[in-house]
Each structure stands twice: as structure tokens, then as C-alpha cells.
């Protein structure tokens, strides 16, 4: 088996808030924002791994942390067998030559005051390349090299003295790629390299990246929020949600048979050209990614999951269960305002039934029946009396999901998914068993 070029183990990147001297004096507890929370993966030489997820899921932070552009909170990264976080300054300099990054925004990643030639030559100067320019001066050698690189990315050596503003978005991204290639790296982090480009230009840049990979034997970590972009360029894909990897797999397999409800929802939201698919059922992702300041207990995706697992002894359909869980979460984060409900239902604040009807119509997006209706109405009755905590407790006691008390992680299989629906296989591991704290309101 080939040795991986890059090995990432339990990588963590936390940011800390309320961390100043004044905060300590005032006795404020330090709060962590877990941007990347213990992820592991490997990339083999010549391979392209896609890292995909919505914005804010931690994928760009992952790329920057493993390149040591940000300091990791924990975990390890090995590049070509060497521990990246233990490198001394000489080793780090060599590492910075072997690994490069191409940023998302071709408009801001190039210095507008420098010519294209100077931009491409700059990394060569920093690393004092070449050692021996032969018959040429170093300046001439570097300029020739910059011209060749420009040609290789589809531009012309005659454009070396132009400035970034004279180029289109796609051309600027080509210039960014030429700059990344100048040091002849082994590994490139492509951080949303085509997101800012028109669709037609995206295809050209993706083709260029594929050609360059073949020609120079490059290894890529390809970061994207759009699954359709990674399909044709990646060998494997890792799907990230709120700082964790939730599914991992060979690209075709992941696209043909996605397992994790989040991956399925992401794929459903990709537009398809086929008219025969019009009218297909789409479990679109609802709501935003929760704050990493205050991630949900258990499975981080549970607040949006269209397949969240109900208690085994509860007879309830998924739509109704989702609606009740949404009510519970809204109560916890303070999104249910009893005063507004009373004002609309009965300003005299006497008719509890009217309050319950109004609360249901505002906050429960499903038809409730039988036991479920009884428990929800009891909880809303407590809310009408001003006892929010008891209302939330009543719902928790009957509706608590295994998805909120145990956190799933990806197992060892070739196509694992961090989801309790796959429990009992080697596709899922349970990371913690005591994560039953409720969601708390962001303060
Ligand atoms: S563990 Fe539960 S909430 Fe999480 S993805 Fe699976 S079914 Fe959904």
C-alpha cells in the first residue's frame, strides 16, 4: 500500500472567547468555538481529496491549520512522514516550498500594486531559487520561468508586465495557480478555487487543474461548498459539518449511494439538468448551520436532520417528530415568546386553550394527534403559566432522541458515515455517550 503524503489525526482548531485579562478578573468563563473538532484523514500521493460542506463548517480552517497558517489546538499532521507541528524553522521553510495554497478570491489574493511577473517571481525570491542560474542572471532566470508558467496556465509570457486589474476573474485564478506552481510543490490546498468564477470559466479552470496534476504529479486537497464541483476532479470526498467529518468515501460511491442524511440533503440541493427528475422529492436543508460556539449535543446535525431518530417506543412520523423537535429547540434558545402568543390569543391572559392553539399554529408545523398532541399541549400549558423550563422538560422527557444523547463518529470502513442509522456496522463509532446537555441560548 502507498504511504500517504498527508496524514491528519484528530486535528482540532478552537478559538477562544472571553479570554482576556479583564475577562479573568471579572470571572467570565472562557468560551471555545470549535471550528475544527477532531478530524482525521489521509491523502495519498497523486490523489485529490475533496473536503465539502456549507460555509462555516470548518473546511477552510482545516486547510489553513494543516499548512500551519493557523496554529492547531490539538492533533497531528504528518507530511511525507514528517510531523508538521514539530518542524523547526529550516524544516518549515522546506515544507512551505513543498506545499502551496490557492485561495478562493482571485480578486483579493493578488497584490494590485505588483505586476503579474513580480507576483509569480516573489516565492522564488523568498526561497532564493535558483541556486545556480547558469549563464543567466537570477533575475532573467526567474522572469523566464514566470513566462513559462504563465504559458502553462493558458496565458502569455507577453503579459508579465501587466497588473491584476487588467485580467478577468478566470485569468486571475490562472495567475494564482501559476504562482502556486512556481516552487514546484508536491501538494496544493485548493480553497474554493472556482467558487467566485462563472460556470463556463469554472470548467476551464477545473480542466487546467486536472491537466497540471497529471503533468506534475500533484496531490490536491480540494475545498468546496458545492458538491457538483468536486465530482469530476476528486478521487475521494470527505463531507464536513460543524467541525466534524460526517461521511467519507470514493467519489462515485458517495454520489451514487450517499449515506449520511446531510450528504443526501447536499446532493438533493444540487440542480440537475434532466427534465425527468423534475418534481423529485427534495429533503432540502432547513435552517442555518448552528453556531460552533454552542453546537448541539450528540449528533451535530440533529437540529436539521430530516431523518432524526425518535424514541423507540414512540409512534410518530418523521415530519411530526421534526416539528416537535423544532418546537423544543425554539423553546431552549428562547425563540418562543409567550407574551406575543398571549397578546394574539387572549390579551386578558385567561384562556389557556386559546394560548395553546395560537402557540401550535405559530410554532408547530404539523398536524398533531393522540399521545403526541397531549404531551405537546401539556408543555404549552406550562409555557402559558410562564414555566418555560417545565415546558421544555416535558417535551424532553417524552421526545428525547438517541441522536441527541450520543455523538456518532466515522468508523473504519472505506465508506463510513457518522450516523446512528448505521449503528452496528464498522461505518459508525460513538464518540461520546454522555452528551445529553441541552442546547443553550447563544448569549
Ligand atoms: S445520527 Fe440521527 S440526527 Fe444525526 S444524521 Fe443520523 S439520524 Fe440524523
UniProtKB/TrEMBL annotation:
<dbReference type="InterPro" id="IPR050319">
    <property type="entry name" value="ABC_transp_ATP-bind"/>
</dbReference>
<dbReference type="InterPro" id="IPR013563">
    <property type="entry name" value="Oligopep_ABC_C"/>
</dbReference>
<dbReference type="InterPro" id="IPR003439">
    <property type="entry name" value="ABC_transporter-like_ATP-bd"/>
</dbReference>
<dbReference type="InterPro" id="IPR003593">
    <property type="entry name" value="AAA+_ATPase"/>
</dbReference>
<comment type="similarity">
    <text>Belongs to the ABC transporter superfamily.</text>
</comment>
<feature type="region of interest" description="Disordered">
    <location>
        <begin position="270"/>
        <end position="297"/>
    </location>
</feature>
<dbReference type="GO" id="GO:0055085">
    <property type="term" value="P:transmembrane transport"/>
</dbReference>
<dbReference type="GO" id="GO:0016887">
    <property type="term" value="F:ATP hydrolysis activity"/>
</dbReference>
<dbReference type="GO" id="GO:0005524">
    <property type="term" value="F:ATP binding"/>
</dbReference>
<keyword id="KW-0547">Nucleotide-binding</keyword>
<dbReference type="Pfam" id="PF08352">
    <property type="entry name" value="oligo_HPY"/>
</dbReference>
<keyword id="KW-0067">ATP-binding</keyword>
<protein>
    <submittedName>
        <fullName>ATP-binding cassette domain-containing protein</fullName>
    </submittedName>
</protein>
<dbReference type="Pfam" id="PF00005">
    <property type="entry name" value="ABC_tran"/>
</dbReference>
<feature type="domain" description="ABC transporter">
    <location>
        <begin position="6"/>
        <end position="267"/>
    </location>
</feature>
<dbReference type="InterPro" id="IPR017871">
    <property type="entry name" value="ABC_transporter-like_CS"/>
</dbReference>
<dbReference type="GO" id="GO:0015833">
    <property type="term" value="P:peptide transport"/>
</dbReference>
<dbReference type="InterPro" id="IPR027417">
    <property type="entry name" value="P-loop_NTPase"/>
</dbReference>
<keyword id="KW-0813">Transport</keyword>
Amino acid at each position: 500500500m502507498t504511504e500517504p503524503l498527508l496524514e491528519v489525526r484528530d486535528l482540532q482548531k478552537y478559538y477562544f472567547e472571553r479570554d482576556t485579562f479583564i475577562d479573568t478578573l471579572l470571572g467570565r468563563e472562557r468560551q471555545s468555538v470549535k471550528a475544527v473538532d477532531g478530524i482525521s484523514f489521509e491523502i495519498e500521493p497523486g490523489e485529490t481529496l475533496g473536503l465539502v460542506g456549507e460555509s462555516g463548517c470548518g473546511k477552510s480552517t482545516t486547510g489553513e491549520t494543516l499548512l500551519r497558517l493557523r496554529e492547531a489546538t490539538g492533533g497531528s499532521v504528518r507530511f511525507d512522514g514528517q510531523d508538521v507541528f514539530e518542524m523547526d524553522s529550516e524544516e518549515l521553510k522546506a515544507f512551505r516550498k513543498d506545499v502551496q495554497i490557492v485561495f478562493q478570491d482571485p480578486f483579493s489574493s493578488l497584490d494590485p500594486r505588483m505586476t503579474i511577473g513580480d507576483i509569480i517571481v516573489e516565492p522564488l525570491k523568498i526561497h532564493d531559487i535558483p541556486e545556480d542560474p547558469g549563464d543567466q542572471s537570477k533575475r532573467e532566470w526567474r522572469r523566464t520561468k514566470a513566462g513559462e508558467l504563465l504559458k502553462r496556465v493558458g496565458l502569455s509570457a507577453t503579459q508579465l508586465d501587466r497588473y491584476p486589474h487588467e485580467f478577468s476573474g478566470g485569468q486571475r485564478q490562472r495567475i494564482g495557480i501559476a504562482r502556486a506552481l512556481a516552487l514546484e510543490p508536491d501538494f496544493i490546498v485548493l480553497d474554493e478555487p472556482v467558487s467566485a468564477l462563472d460556470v463556463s470559466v469554472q470548467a476551464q479552470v477545473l480542466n487546467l487543474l486536472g491537466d497540471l496534476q497529471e503533468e506534475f504529479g500533484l496531490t490536491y486537497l480540494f475545498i468546496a461548498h458545492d458538491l457538483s464541483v468536486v465530482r469530476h476532479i476528486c478521487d475521494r470526498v470527505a463531507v464536513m459539518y460543524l467541525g466534524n467529518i460526517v461521511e467519507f468515501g470514493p467519489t462515485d460511491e458517495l454520489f451514487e449511494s450517499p449515506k449520511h442524511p446531510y450528504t443526501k440533503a447536499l446532493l438533493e440541493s444540487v440542480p440537475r439538468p434532466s427534465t425527468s427528475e423534475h418534481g423529485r422529492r427534495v429533503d432540502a436543508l432547513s435552517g442555518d448551520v448552528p453556531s460552533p460556539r454552542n453546537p448541539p449535543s450528540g449528533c451535530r446535525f440533529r437540529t436539521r436532520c430530516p431523518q432524526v431518530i425518535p424514541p423507540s417506543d414512540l409512534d410518530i412520523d418523521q415530519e411530526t417528530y421534526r416539528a416537535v423537535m423544532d418546537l423544543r429547540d425554539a423553546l431552549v434558545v428562547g425563540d418562543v415568546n409567550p407574551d406575543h402568543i398571549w397578546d394574539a390569543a387572549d390579551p386578558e391572559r385567561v384562556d389557556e386553550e386559546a394560548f395553546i392553539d395560537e402557540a401550535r399554529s405559530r410554532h408547530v408545523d404539523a398536524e398533531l394527534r393522540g399521545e403526541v398532541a397531549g404531551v405537546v399541549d401539556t408543555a404549552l400549558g406550562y409555557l402559558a403559566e410562564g414555566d418555560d423550563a417545565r415546558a421544555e422538560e416535558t417535551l424532553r422527557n417524552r421526545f428525547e432522541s438517541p441522536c441527541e444523547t450520543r455523538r456518532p463518529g466515522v468508523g473504519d470502513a472505506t465508506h463510513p458515515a457518522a450516523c446512528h442509522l448505521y449503528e452496528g456496522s464498522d461505518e459508525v463509532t460513538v464518540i461520546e455517550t454522555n452528551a445529553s446537555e441541552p442546547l443553550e441560548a447563544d448569549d
